[in-house]
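Quick one: structure for this chain?
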Amino acid sequence: MDFTFNDDQELIQKTFHDFVEQEVKPHADEIDERKEFPMELFRKVGDLDFFGMRYPEEAGGSGVDTVSYCLAVIELARGSLSLAAACTMQSLMATYFLYRFGDDELRHYFDKALKGEKIGGICMTEPDAGSDLNSIRTKAKVFDDHFILNGMKTWVTSAPVADFFTVFAKTDNHDKLSIFFVPSHLDGVVVGKNIDKLGVRGSVTSEVSFDDVKLQQNCLLGEVGEGTTCLREILAEIRIMTAALSVGVATAAFEDAVEYAKTRVQFGRPIGKFQAVRMKCADMAVQLETARHYLFYAASLTDNDLPRQKESMVAKLYASECANSICDMASRVLASYGYAAEYPLQRYLRDARFLLIGGGTSEILGINIGKELGL
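Got it. Here's what it folds into:
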């Protein structure tokens, strides 16, 4: 299969590459150290129309293909996984259901979100419900002309700065999940303290509680009980996107390691001339190229409306594991400097751990791939 990029794809890649080099990389360490949402850079990503890339032109987006979107994601993650995680959340999970089901009154939020002027978050995970969404306890009580929402969510990306949430909950008349649009300013919506994380620390994450939150009828997105079915519509894209994030941070670690191997001199020659270091760089290159090519294979299946459920899981599982392996090998090439805060390698190492969780853990994906094989 030919993965040669067309002119439009090359332009998107170059645009985001240049943006990352000029605007993101100089501030990446500061984003991590301050543990604050990178609002200014987030707005600039909005100016590049990133948040609307996966939506059609008639909805206010640019309607680009999945391969192009992945090229942009890779570049953002190469610069700062914190920024990339916040931006991909906005561009897909936080806005998709609003796009699919929002009425004219709610469309205002979607339009603003595509420009980066409003920020969204998705609320699925609970203290006792992670991979097992059927265990969700958040509930909406049904009345004639409104709903009353109660519950607690955790690990909500961008929660402290969010203008609205997409909330998965059960109703008191249905045991399956429904989806609700919840503006963050409503009475009863409480954002808890930030969760202090090992990595992606600029992608701020919090608990969110809902205490007798009154929602109008149009805040139900889709039909009652259809939440899980609707989520399946974008599961493959979520996993492909997470694979792109993985390739991005792996690329950063690989590039830094190769550059260091070329310039670090020991025993009278660059360390890249020593077989042990050269083999590590070769191993990283093999893993990165394999993950990158399979990512674009899965993305191309999406663009051609072909089945890609298994392929998206393989892409995410392999790329996220490779990202962690590559970051580890790169840190060994840099040795003590790979452990030093003044070098970004330690940030890549910490950030990459997030990719083993987001989009489905490796263990859950392994189980589901087995099911796809008929096991």
